[in-house]
Design brief:
With about 350 residues, this protein is mostly helical. It has one domain. It is globular, with a radius of gyration of 22 Å. About 35% of the residues are buried. The chain is built from 16 helices and 6 strands. Strand 5 and strand 6 form a beta hairpin. It has a 4-stranded antiparallel β-sheet with strand order 4-3-5-6. A two-stranded antiparallel sheet has the order 1-2.
């Protein structure tokens, strides 16, 4: 893991979106992803409302894309596929989305986090708000930052231990076809529609911390980001700094949302780099910071790289939607049968 030496400091924020094509494209990609997820959320809410009414009234189809918010179930489904060679028909879209996200990290670093992820987008908006409120960007002292950054790996290790190590092929298949797993998407929705005071307090604290430290959730607590960060070390592309051209203006380090000291390294090799291209955009000297393929000297267009990333992600999901597997096999009648147990809060994780 690349260590980014952090000292207590104040960084003046730089707004890139108005001037840089990469950031304009990234904002458009983030907005597109946010709109798609809002659309899925509204459609799924209406679908569940239809179920709660016993199948009466306006019938709305279930959007399979909601399964993208069930990463643990997707991991279990992926293990089931690796054991059996069969894609289960309970939440197939979830596994497909999960695999596409993993592949995006393999090919495009942690680009998913800064170009697609709606949670990352919200976190970035909160960071922008904080920049304008405080007129500066605050980062914690190095010792605290290193400790907090380790938390997401602890959380990831727990999930990998609980799923990959603890569950064998038989227990995985048994879990996938339980009534609980069939309605995990509805249970997830009810977490927000019937949120407890404790959960609301935790989410509120995360919002507040995200205003204090940019990207608090993503940097310190997101196990998804931890997994993608580890995979990103295998990515064939790197941001490389030409030391001869560098004028030591430190603009790249100042603008980096992950606090990476880009101005002090020959190439960025970090689990925190999300491929946002902010450092490349802000560099005032041509060919000083550039995106290259490992082992090659030729420059890769950062704009084309980003466009391919976005097209790869959404194109893969669109192809899965057209040719499958995508739709689950659970009928509306079965969902309706499960609703009294769901609304009664009687489901217990198996």
């Amino acid at each position: 893991m690349h260590k980014t030496e952090l000292q207590p400091a104040v960084l003046q924020p730089i707004d890139l979106r108005e001037k840089r094509p990469n950031q304009k494209l990234r904002f458009a990609a983030q907005m597109f992803s946010a709109i798609i997820n809002i659309w899925i959320g509204v459609q799924f809410y209406l679908f569940v409302n239809f179920l709660e009414n016993g199948g009466q009234g306006w019938e709305v189809s279930r959007p399979p894309g909601v399964e993208g918010w069930l990463p643990i179930g997707a991991l279990v489904s992926l293990l089931h596929f690796l054991y059996s060679g069969v894609i289960n028909n309970i939440h197939p879209a979830g596994m497909i989305i999960f695999v596409v996200i993993l592949l995006s990290a393999l090919f495009f670093k942690k680009g998913f986090c800064s170009w697609v992820c709606p949670v990352g987008f919200i976190s970035e908006i909160l960071g922008d708000i904080a920049d304008r409120l405080f007129g500066r960007r605050i980062k914690p002292p190095a010792w605290l930052d290193y400790f907090l950054r380790s938390l997401k790996y602890v959380i990831l290790a727990f999930f990998l231990w609980a799923v990959v190590y603890q569950m064998d092929a038989a227990s995985i298949e048994q879990f996938l076809y339980t009534d609980y797993n069939k309605v995990t998407d509805i249970l997830m929705l009810r977490f927000f529609t019937d949120i407890t005071m404790f959960s609301l307090s935790v989410i509120s604290l995360l919002f507040i911390f995200s205003l204090i430290v940019r990207g608090f959730w993503c940097r310190y607590l997101c196990p998804y980001g931890a997994l993608l960060g580890l995979i990103s070390f295998l990515s064939p592309t790197r941001i490389v700094r030409n030391e001869k051209n560098c004028i030591d203006c430190s603009s790249c380090a100042t603008v980096c949302p992950s606090f990476i000291k880009v101005d002090k390294v020959k190439q960025v090799v970090s689990d925190e780099c999300t491929g946002c291209m902010a450092c490349v955009d802000v560099c005032p000297v041509n060919d000083t910071l550039k995106l290259t393929i490992v082992g090659k000297k030729n420059r890769v267009s950062s704009l084309k790289w980003a466009a391919v990333l976005v097209l790869f992600f959404w194109g893969s999901l669109f192809a899965a939607k057209l040719w499958g597997p995508w739709e689950n096999s659970i009928s509306n009648e079965e969902y309706i049968r499960q609703m009294p147990t769901v609304t009664g809060g009687q489901f217990v994780h198996p």
